[in-house]
Amino acid sequence: MSQARRTDVAIIGAGTAGMAAYRAVKAAGLSALLIEGGPYGTTCARVGCMPSKLLIAAAEAAHHARHTAPFGVHVDGPVRIDGHQVMQRVKSERDRFVGFVLDSVNNIPQSDRLPGHARFIGNTQLLVGDSTVVDASRVVIATGSSAVVPDMYAALGDRAIINDDVFAWDTLPGSVLVVGPGVIGLELGQALARLGVRVTVLGRSGGLAGISDPAVRDNAFQAFSAEFPLCLNAEVTSVERTDQGVHVQYRDRRGQHTEQYDYVLLAVGRRPNIAGLGLENTLAKLDDRGMPAFNRQTLQLDGIPVFLAGDVNAQWPLLHEAADDGRIAGQNAAAYPAVSPGSRRAPLSVVFTDPQVMHVGLRFRQLPDSGVVTGEVDFADQGRSRVMLKNRGLLRVYAEQQTGRFLGAEMVGPAAEHLGHLLSWACQQGMTISQMLDMPFYHPVIEEGLRTALRDAARQINA
Which residues make up each annotated binding site? Predict the structure, then answer.
């Protein structure tokens, strides 16, 4: 027997973007229905940023314990890593973070929540599960994304894993091949290597952690490849499941290689979760992958009152961007048809490796062909970094030659997560290099390295 529900705005997906959209709609005084087809709890809390940082924290503890001798501090005996204890803490703390998210969900009235998978049967009409029809005036799609698993790895079964699977381990494996040196692959690959797992990281295109500045990328490659095998121009030619794990053949510039690993961790990208939504039953304009055309400022699908928020729109797969997407989509859904471009923050991304990687504002590949100066600092001899033996990395800042306005930066190095925040604030405020140099810099701090880069840019602006 079918059931009918009526609401002003239906929101498909109760992750970061969906929850933000729900709050925006309710703040506007409209009714909202939050539809979720899977477990509650955001990607970040369950299988993303929080459990990965827990694993990284364990890896940093192990790394620090092994590298005290240069300070004159000697720890007797080898460092012992208990994989069971490592994963127990990762999972218990992860569950604690998920619990906070569930508390937020539980504070939403039961009447505003609807479990089940949603499918469009009209422009704003949904079938949820097998029998519930939801008639909405507008819809927000916030279904997130999923890791891509190329066909050649399908036969490996549970020996081909994605980042989600890592956090279900009860202990650490002996060896892992990481395919994809992007943010996820590099963070997890380095963490596992520091925890005693034999790790190789392979990439095909030469890219590394999303870095587009060649000088920064080269510096990063030197740092990471000193810790574990890192091949950025390699191709996996065959994989075969064996009794011991996975037999892998790959080719790089040095020739053909044959290796055995317990697992292959696939970190080759993510795909928007649009399959099965029934968008073909709407007037949305779909490309050959089924992806709908939408306005990147308002997040509205072309021609219909449906909005695409968060990782599902494949714009900025970051938690703070997903939250902003949800807010913009929710506000525009509530105000429809009077939609408007949403306010955006300065672009900021951080990779929690060691050394860390960050970018702010315009990336190197986005800079104009002329009229730009670049200031830089190499952290090899930067005072505070050398004191802490964290003196690896390179920061490059970009500015307009004529006006001195700060445009952006890319960096690999110490405390990049903190320098990135300072630079993103400066970028959002539209500051010039001169204005940034007028800000206080304490001594001795890593931020003095930023000042060195800014001074380098200022000399070129004033030349």
Answer: 53, 143-145, 180-187, 269, 311
Tokens of 358: 């960050």
Annotated binding site for FAD: 53, 143-145, 311
- Could you tell me which CATH class the domain 348-462 is placed in? alpha beta
Q: CA distances (Å), 80 to each of 58, 187, 385, in order?
A: 12, 22, 28
> What type of residue sits at position 176?
V
The model's confidence at residue 40, banded by pLDDT at 50, 70 and 90, is confident
The matching CATH number, chosen from 3.40.50.10380, 3.50.50.60, 3.10.290.10, 3.30.300.130, for 151-268 is 3.50.50.60
| DSSP characters over 270-323 | EEES-TTS-GGGSS--B-TTSPBPB-TTT-BBTTSSEEE-GGGG-S--SHHHHH
Which is it for strands 175-179 and 198-202: parallel, antiparallel or unpaired? Answer: parallel
Binding residues for NAD(+): 180-187, 269
Same fold, 3-147+271-335 and 151-268: yes
For residue 256, pLDDT over 70 is answered with: yes
Q: Count the Cβ atoms, other than its own, within 10 Å of residue 130.
A: 8
Residues 6+ apart with CB under 8 A from 241: 155, 156, 157, 159, 247
φ, ψ dihedrals at 63, nearest 5°: -65, -45
Structure tokens at 423: 């630079």
pLDDT tens digits, 46-56: 778 899 999 99
3-147+271-335: CATH number: 3.50.50.60
Q: Which residue of the set 63, 67, 320, 443 is catalytic?
A: 443
Active-site annotation holds for 117: no
Which residues are CB-contacts of 92 (< 8 A; sequence separation ≥ 6)?
none
> pTM to 2 decimals?
0.95
The string of pLDDT tens digits covering residues 147-202 is 999 999 999 999 999 999 999 999 999 999 999 999 999 999 999 999 999 999 99
Q: What is the pLDDT confidence band of residue 2, given thresholds at 50, 70 and 90?
A: low
Domain ranges of the chain: 3-147+271-335, 151-268, 348-462
Is the pLDDT reported for residue 17 higher than 50?
Answer: yes
Number of H helices, E strands in the chain: 12, 22
